[in-house]
Amino acid sequence: MKKRTLWMGLMLATVLSNAQAELKGAGSSFASQLYRSWSQSIAKAPESRLDYAPVGSGAGIKAAQDRTVDFGASDRPLNRAALAAAGLAQFPAAIGGAVLMTSLPGIDSEKIKLDGDVVARIYLGTIKKWNDPAIQALNPDLPLPATAVVPVFRSESSGTSFVLTSYLSKINANFKTDIGPTSNLSVSTGRGGKTSTEIIKVVRETAGAIGYVDYSIAMDLGLPTVQMKNQWGKFVKANHDSLQLAMRAADWELMSIDQDPTFEMDLTDTGCPGCWPIASATYVLVPLKDQNTNSVRVLDFFEQALQRGDEIAIKEGYVPLPSRAKNMINVAMRRWYSSLEKSGVGKSQRKSEGGSEGVAMASR
After folding, report:
1. b/e burial code for range 112-143 (CB count within 10 A of at least 16 → b)
2. What is the number of other CB atoms lying within 10 angstroms of the CB of residue 285?
3. Domain ends where: 191, 216, 248?
4. What's residue 364's pLDDT?
5. Does 103 share its domain with 238?
6. What is the domain range of residue 269?
7. Which of 154, 158, 156, 157 lies closest to 123 in space, CA to CA?
8. Within 13 Å, how many C-alpha atoms sit on residue 122's CB side?
9. CA-CA distance, 58 to 72, in Å (whole number)?
10. How many CB atoms lie within 10 A of CB 237?
11. Half-sphere exposure of 22 (CA within 13 A, CB side)
12. Per residue in 229-285, pLDDT tens?
């Protein structure tokens, strides 16, 4: 009996040790499925796996700043000053996008065509009915009802809100003045939801509702989404091809002239006929200063994910980064590994862990 008790105690201690060794991250719901799948497929040991909480980009940024997690994730990149003040490194992990879904009896979302100006006016509250002339002009063949439009929004800080409002601010001057790019969208005439799951629930249960979620979530759940008119005047459906075109149309080469890039990249309203206009990168935030004992392992994980995780990203509804972006991130990682080693973190971890594949790569 004593032996059995001792064995059970040792097993419990091992489980707890492994759970505590997992890398803890928090932030963007946009990226949660990707990080979960990468963790399951790429991490070779329990201490290399991710324990990720999809609490929203705003909470993820704060958690990284407060050092309550090993890394944060956000769809809203921080600028150079904010990164320096918080002692954080930042890099993109994948490309996705925001999509819109509606709830109109008898009319599927995928049949509805909208443009940025109409969506902006809906969230400003100036378009109040679904049979508004501006919507009807985009959908001449649809019998749009006189149902009230109910804009649904994320009621807590959200990177998806930031992506959508950044796009709408480019398209509509009044939206830019009255609301502007923000992670904290609030609409007095609409309804809020704390998470993407709540957004979907509110839209489904509210006649006349329109709301937004990440493309990966819509794809995973098989949700029909509206077509959007891009700057070329083309109506485009959100899918892998239209997101990939938006990614390719971005000026990644502009980053190559920066010796210390922050990788801030605006992919909204990029210019090509087949581009999805509300595309975005999702970012990882890693501490380089103060309580950064797991930062080497975080960098090692994402280095491996960016090298070997493209097929997984595509399967989960994301677009992998282009090779030139990955090369720039690898160069930046060399600097971050060096910075961590100078602080004593990288060196101590390499000695204690015997050097993981990613860390060994960093020293070459």
Report:
1. bbbbbbbbbbbbbeebeebebeebeebbeebe
2. 27
3. 248
4. 31
5. yes
6. 2-96+257-363
7. 154
8. 31
9. 10
10. 15
11. 18
12. 999 999 999 999 999 999 988 877 766 666 788 998 889 998 899 999 999 999 999
How many C-beta neighbours within 10 Å does residue 258 have?
13
Rounded Cα distance, 216 and 28, in Å: 12
What confidence tens digit (pLDDT) does each residue in 20-48 have?
Answer: 468 999 998 888 889 999 999 987 777 78
Same domain, yes or no: 104 and 244: yes
78, 86 in Cβ contact below 8 A?
yes
SS3 category, 94? strand
Name the domain boundary from 226, 248, 270. 248
- Same domain for 92 and 102, yes or no, is no
Say if residue 146 is in the same domain as residue 277.
no
Query: Is residue 340 domain-shared with residue 277, that is, in the same domain?
Result: yes
Here the CATH number for the domain that contains residue 45 is 3.40.190.10
Q: What is the pLDDT of residue 87?
A: 95
The predicted-structure confidence for 123-151, as pLDDT tens digits, reads as follows 999 999 999 999 999 999 999 999 999 99
**Same structural domain, 270 and 181:** no
122 CB-near residues (< 8 Å, 6+ apart): 149, 151, 210
Question: Given the DSSP bridges, would you call strands 23-27 and 50-53 parallel, antiparallel or unpaired?
Answer: parallel
Same-domain status, 244 and 262 = no
Rounded distance between C-alpha atoms, residue 281 and residue 279, angstroms: 7
How many separate domains does the chain show?
A: 2
